[in-house]
Amino acid sequence: MPTSSNGTPPIHDEKMPPSDPLAMHRAPSVTLSPELFEKYYLSPQTPVHGSLRKTFANPTPLAVLGLAMALTPFSCDVMGWRGAGGNGAASIGSYYFMGGMLMIIGSIGEWIMGNTYPFVLFGAYGGFWLSFAATLTPSLGAYGQYSTNYSVEHPSAGLDDSAFAASFGFFLLAMAVLSLIFALGTLRLNICLMVVEWGLTLCFTLLTATFWHLAQGNAGVAGKCLTAAGAFGFVASAGAWWILAAQILAAVEFPISLPVGDMSGVFPAKKVKVESAV
């Protein structure tokens, strides 16, 4: 039996886990505390069968990376920083392959791990980025159907059509409602994820207002709503970057741990009565 420096056997106490979350993840006799689990997976710790969480890598940072890499340029574009514009069309590649593809892959990984909340969250936003990119792709003709002048020479014809703006606003409104549901879920997780989700809720709400004001011909008001939407999107992306940095530093066992603002103690989990099997 191995002994410590004073000759006594080492103690492995699950109530006092070591400070390194990855070391705890690997140790067979120690489990992640609920706070560290929620920081690492962005999900409450729930019992699952098997040892998939010890077998496969954590998919959460990949999906968070995809969100940050798609949302950041989009937010900067719609705010018009350094002369940017075009409703973020210049970053359509990042919407497909960063926001869309990486978040879908992360969502599938969370499903395999048995983490319901991030599985649904990453899948929903991955689907949004793919849908948004497809809408901006001229060859798919989403907005071209609203213009009689749409052609290869005029690929943007239809984007300024009032019917297209009014119709697309409903999709953005649905995303705002979905983000609000996700935001309520963050009250059980951490402050950084709250910043992301509440920021996205306001971002999508203001984007809805942007397109509906455009449909009514209120270009001035629509421009202000678009800038405000970009600002809230940028705040949300900052929260995503912080979460990503915290998870990457934990993954490489960096000596400094970034806090994410654990909220599990503020809103404790619902007590579930477990009935023994007969």
Automatic annotation (TrEMBL):
<feature type="transmembrane region" description="Helical">
    <location>
        <begin position="221"/>
        <end position="244"/>
    </location>
</feature>
<feature type="transmembrane region" description="Helical">
    <location>
        <begin position="62"/>
        <end position="81"/>
    </location>
</feature>
<dbReference type="GO" id="GO:0005886">
    <property type="term" value="C:plasma membrane"/>
</dbReference>
<dbReference type="InterPro" id="IPR051633">
    <property type="entry name" value="AceTr"/>
</dbReference>
<dbReference type="GO" id="GO:0015123">
    <property type="term" value="F:acetate transmembrane transporter activity"/>
</dbReference>
<keyword id="KW-1133">Transmembrane helix</keyword>
<feature type="transmembrane region" description="Helical">
    <location>
        <begin position="119"/>
        <end position="143"/>
    </location>
</feature>
<dbReference type="Pfam" id="PF01184">
    <property type="entry name" value="Gpr1_Fun34_YaaH"/>
</dbReference>
<feature type="transmembrane region" description="Helical">
    <location>
        <begin position="93"/>
        <end position="112"/>
    </location>
</feature>
<dbReference type="InterPro" id="IPR000791">
    <property type="entry name" value="Gpr1/Fun34/SatP-like"/>
</dbReference>
<feature type="region of interest" description="Disordered">
    <location>
        <begin position="1"/>
        <end position="24"/>
    </location>
</feature>
<feature type="transmembrane region" description="Helical">
    <location>
        <begin position="191"/>
        <end position="215"/>
    </location>
</feature>
<feature type="transmembrane region" description="Helical">
    <location>
        <begin position="163"/>
        <end position="184"/>
    </location>
</feature>
<keyword id="KW-0812">Transmembrane</keyword>
<keyword id="KW-0472">Membrane</keyword>
<protein>
    <submittedName>
        <fullName>Gpr1-like plasma membrane protein</fullName>
    </submittedName>
</protein>
<comment type="similarity">
    <text>Belongs to the acetate uptake transporter (AceTr) (TC 2.A.96) family.</text>
</comment>
